[in-house]
Fold these 2 entries.
Entry 1:
Amino acid sequence: MNPNEKRACRRYAMPGVTTQVLESTLIGPAQYGRSCPVENVSKGGVLFQSSHQYKVGAMLDIGIQGPATASPIFTEAEVCYKKADKGHFHYGVRFAQINVQTLRKIRQLCA
């Protein structure tokens, strides 16, 4: 492991896993936006790509969907990392106040 590594949790590459960010609308209820590809997942957070811009420190409601998951795993996450890359952004988000049941689902996704 890199001695300069700040992450506390091991990351797992997740081909086929996507995340959706809850998008507020002015008219009607908030809806989850289009699927964004996930680069990796850990029990501490997710790294995903999106064309939308979010500020570091922003709190997002996200849904993580894997090929083998029956329904998305919903949780709140804080944007900790943002990097622009050819018309889209890479976002690292840390799960906030995650409950035991949601953590169990994320561990299953990473297994």
Entry 2:
Amino acid sequence: MKRILFLCTLFFSFITFSQRNVADTIIGTPYVGVQYTAVFPGGDLADRYGFLNQIGAFAGYKTAKNWIYGLDGNFIFGNRINDNSFLDKWSSCYSASAIKRFLRKCYRR
């Protein structure tokens, strides 16, 4: 597995082009990328979720006046979840009967 990861990193490092050949000028340029992060959390986060992975993508544009506009999004997931307390609130107050009562109150004529 380590050998495959090393070969992929080596391969992608030779085929990427990250610089433009422009002498002494400021130009606008778009950029895109993907990212992966391995997180070894500590404390409560480690107890609840264990080892975490993060996968994301980003895209943006740098203007000729050196302003940067961009979007960045990530998805974080772990190998275990030991905390279900955040679901208790949703399951009790947003049950099917509670939603029906709410809709009846909202759409009464």
